[in-house]
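This section describes the prediction task in plain terms. A model, or a person checking by hand, is given the sequence of a single protein chain and must write out its three-dimensional structure as a string of tokens. No templates, partner chains or ligands are provided. The sample shown here is typical of the held-out split.
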Amino acid sequence: MSFKRQIITLAVCGGLLVGGCAAPANKQPDEQGNKPNTAVPAAPASDKASQPPSGQNGSEGTVPPVPPTETQPGDSKLPSTSKSDEAKAAGKLILDGKFLPMLKDGRVQGIDIAIGTTKESVLKKYGPITKQDYYDGGQYTAFEKLGKGILYFDGHDRVYCMDLGSQWADKTELNAIKQALGAPNDEGVSDVDGDYYLYYVVGKIELFLAFDSKDAPLKSIRIINKQMITDFPQKPLNG
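The expected answer:
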């Protein structure tokens, strides 16, 4: 996530607090026909209440953030996180037959951020941090050079969830993505936000792809390992 919130609502689990990583509710189909849940797991009761990303730069702080002021076709609802319009995400997710097998090990084909990448490593390439806050029950971090994307770190400061805008993908058309990745574990209209989603599961990794409709271009991507946040809950933002 159903996918949102951002599918791609950015699911992060117990004790945790993106996107997103925004998406449908209850996505992983069960015998009752329920859809997978894409929301980031709820934060501890003592933590700050979840607030949607404002899209404004600040200090540290799914599936799915507030849309940009001017939304263009194919844009995600992820907040604008870079200080400069020139800050661009490096690389593209290469959505082909190798993508899911690599994702099973946490690797994301085409970019140098993986599930399990440390915050220190992300800072060296994409820093400094421009904002940290809670959203969809999870604490996200935005980086100056990360472009349309936010990351979620577990209690050991490792990426367990990433919410990325469509700019990160080398394909944005739904049928082309399905042809490249194969049949999803689930797809359909989100009960939460009405987005159309594709949902894949490989090992402990879940992939959510969100679209405004079945005929619209890709809007957002969420990659998440919920087990990491269950095992190692996030640290309080100001703890």
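For orientation: The radius of gyration is 15 Å.
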